[in-house]
Amino acid sequence: MLILLLLLFLLLSPPQFVISATVTTTSAGHAIPFPPFEHLNIKQSIAATKLRPPASSSNADQYTADSEITQKPISHNSTVKLHLVHRDKLAFSWRNDHRRRFESRMKRDARRVASLIRRLSGGGAAYEVSDFGSEVISGMEQGSGEYFVRIGVGSPARSQYMVIDSGSDIVWVQCQPCSQCYHQSDPVFDPADSASFSGVSCSSSVCERVENSGCHAGRCKYEVSYGDGSYTKGTLALETLTIGHTVVQNVAIGCGHMNRGMFVGAAGLLGLGGGSMSLVGQLGGQTGGAFSYCLVSRGTGSFGSLEFGRSVLPVGAAWVPLLRNSRAPSFYYLGLSGLGVGGTRVPISEDTFRLNELGDGGVVMDTGTAVTRLPAAAYVAFRDTFMAETANLPRAPGVSIFDTCYDLNGFVTVRVPTVSFFLSGGPILTLPARNFLIPVDERGTFCFAFAPSPSDLSIIGNIQQEGIQISFDGSNGYVGFGPNVC
Description:
By secondary structure, this protein is of the alpha+beta class. The chain is built from eight helices and 32 strands. The chain has helices at residues 2-12, 42-47, 59-62, 98-120, 205-208, 279-283, 376-389, 462-465, and strands at 22-25, 37-41, 72-73, 80-86, 147-153, 158-165, 172-174, 198-199, 214-216, 219-225, 231-243, 246-260, 268-271, 290-294, 304-308, 318-323, 332-334, 336-341, 344-345, 363-365, 372-375, 395-396, 405-407, 413-417, 419-423, 427-430, 437-439, 445-448, 450-453, 458-460, 469-473, 478-482. A hairpin with a 5-residue loop joins strand 27 (437-439) and strand 28. Residues 147-482 form the Peptidase A1 domain.
């Protein structure tokens, strides 16, 4: 009898942690087939605010040195894998004060969102030559660039940290001679030291594919401006990149001689957007337009991953169609039909998340935005439902962009309602508690990690993506959500 009672207790007891996202498939509007509540471990979450280096104690240990890179050419259906690390893990951005680090991240996030919305509205800034002398602004105070990878540039390969950005296309690095460069952790790339560097002529078809390209002394010039005032300007070139242990030749990159803004620490940016000039677009048939990433969860001390190639697409993932917007071909849109809290669908019209024929609205997946943004009416309904389900928890004043916060000081675990995205076609993505209730200081203040959008655009940010394998099948036009593989 005692054994039967013990088994019954174990079956009925709720889980203490949710360690990965859950993806289920059901008809739209049906009850969500998973528990309406889960438990968030408070002490574990607060401990995660204390930074420690991932895996190894030094950058030298984390990555292969330039002289140790074993190169092999890329081939059809190749698989290429890189470590992925959050900028806060790197030595040049460590902070002892979690609150200060958090506030800096929110400032970057607000500027990132404003940049995306400005690009969609056609209000991208144009800069004249006179702007070249502008002050270099620290990336810790402006812009985005949340996740970094390490790749080799040139021949011989020079290892460089690169920001990954799923919302832009150009691959670029800071280059010597550098008349205006921000601080980076590695020596600035010098094309004179690379045997594979080759400038692109103005008449080249590659030059014609670059927006805002120009010509000077027969060489193709490029300029990429970001909505927050950051930019990179220089010459376009073909160069060899070493990604992991795989060599990719004749990649069109920007060699930036004048750079400003949001990329401090990194050597440049690895554009992973949907355009032809992104790294994904340039690899094309070599990888089938497929790539996958898993953003490392906060406080794990481990790496995330970024992989290219069709063989990285997971079996058993929930796949939904990618949507394209001709006004923003770099962005990855997906269909979202609704939101769920505590096993109940929030009463929000599907039209709220629809990408219309004019290219307005819609839902974008973005690695550079931290906090998911929702149209104001949808956010209010979503937030109010969550607040009603957590009325038993002590409230705290709002912090930064968050208006729904809780004082969980002294708690060991708390019971919170599940939060879900209803994806078009039936799949439901249910988030771990740590992906929507996050610590904003070391005193036990936790906030609901969503915010209203200043436009009709919805953005699924990287906090909500953490610990989930997200895969893009560009050839077939799908995005997949799989299990935790970080």
